[in-house]
């Protein structure tokens, strides 16, 4: 199966040779994100105060790496020290320069951690990103409506919480009596139902 090329490189899904990944599903995520220009729109919802001369990983690439890893089930940021070398995930980055012989590794856990830390509560020398959360949440609504011929009259969302066990005293993890451990408790939207009249 052929996917969208990566600069001069052709991207095929095959089972006969080459580098191996267990995360080939990221190629489907990459195709859909490119169709909607998702990570470009997401990056526009952030203020990036990094010195452009020192930037090694574009904001769009950082967002693509983190969002796709979470979608693949890698919620822990520590996973990225290994994932940054995964051949399938490396296709999320911007194409390399013409003189590059190989695709560079993605961002490490330390770089991604700077993206996720709150600018207001940390040492600002090390965290140069600020999300505009209102703009970001509005973006997902806009992309949803853009994907439909006409806006629905009613949308029903099925929202569930699930625990992700914390290790030690990670920031924003709390003890939960039902699960009997420290955890994060994110809400997930499982399905939605659209009603047209």
Concise structural overview:
The chain is α+β, with helices and mostly antiparallel strands and 197 residues long.
Mean pLDDT: 81
Oligomeric state of the chains present here: single chain
Gap between N and C termini: 40 Å
Strand content: 15-25%
* Rg from alpha-carbon coordinates: 19 Å
Lateral strand order in the biggest sheet: 6-8-7
Count of structural domains: 2
Low-confidence stretches: none
DSSP E strands, number: 9
* SS element count, helices: 6
Overview of the structural elements:
This protein is α+β, with helices and mostly antiparallel strands and 197 residues long. The chain folds into 2 domains: 2-135, no CATH class; 149-195, no CATH class. The chain contains 6 helices and 9 strands. The protein has helices spanning 26-36, 38-43, 59-71, 80-83, 109-116, 133-146; strands at residues 2-6, 9-12, 46-48, 129-131, 154-161, 164-165, 174-176, 181-184, 187-195. The strands form 4 sheets. Strands 6-8-7 form a 3-stranded antiparallel sheet, with no helix packed on it. It has a two-stranded antiparallel sheet with strand order 1-2. A hairpin with a 2-residue loop joins strand 1 (2-6) and strand 2 (9-12). The longest helix has 14 residues, at 133-146. It is globular. The protein starts with a strand and ends with a strand. 16% of the residues are buried. The model has no long low-confidence stretch (mean pLDDT 81).
């Amino acid at each position: 199966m052929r996917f969208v090329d990566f600069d001069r490189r052709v991207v095929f899904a095959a089972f006969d040779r080459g580098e191996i990944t267990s995360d080939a599903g990221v190629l489907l995520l990459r195709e859909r994100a490119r169709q909607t220009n998702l990570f470009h729109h997401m990056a526009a919802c952030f203020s990036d105060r990094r010195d452009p001369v020192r930037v090694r990983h574009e904001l769009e690439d950082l967002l693509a790496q983190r969002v796709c890893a979470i979608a693949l089930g890698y919620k822990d940021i520590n996973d990225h020290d290994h994932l940054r070398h995964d051949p399938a995930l490396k296709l999320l980055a911007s194409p390399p320069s013409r003189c590059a012989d190989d695709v560079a590794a993605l961002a490490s856990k330390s770089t991604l951690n700077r993206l996720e830390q709150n600018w207001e509560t940390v040492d600002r020398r090390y965290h140069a990103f600020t999300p505009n959360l209102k703009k970001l949440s509005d973006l997902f609504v806009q992309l949803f409506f853009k994907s439909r011929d006409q806006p629905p009259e009613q949308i029903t969302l099925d929202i569930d919480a699930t625990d992700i066990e914390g290790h030690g005293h990670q920031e924003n993890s709390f003890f939960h009596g039902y699960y009997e451990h420290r955890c994060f408790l994110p809400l997930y939207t499982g399905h939605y139902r659209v009603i047209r009249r």
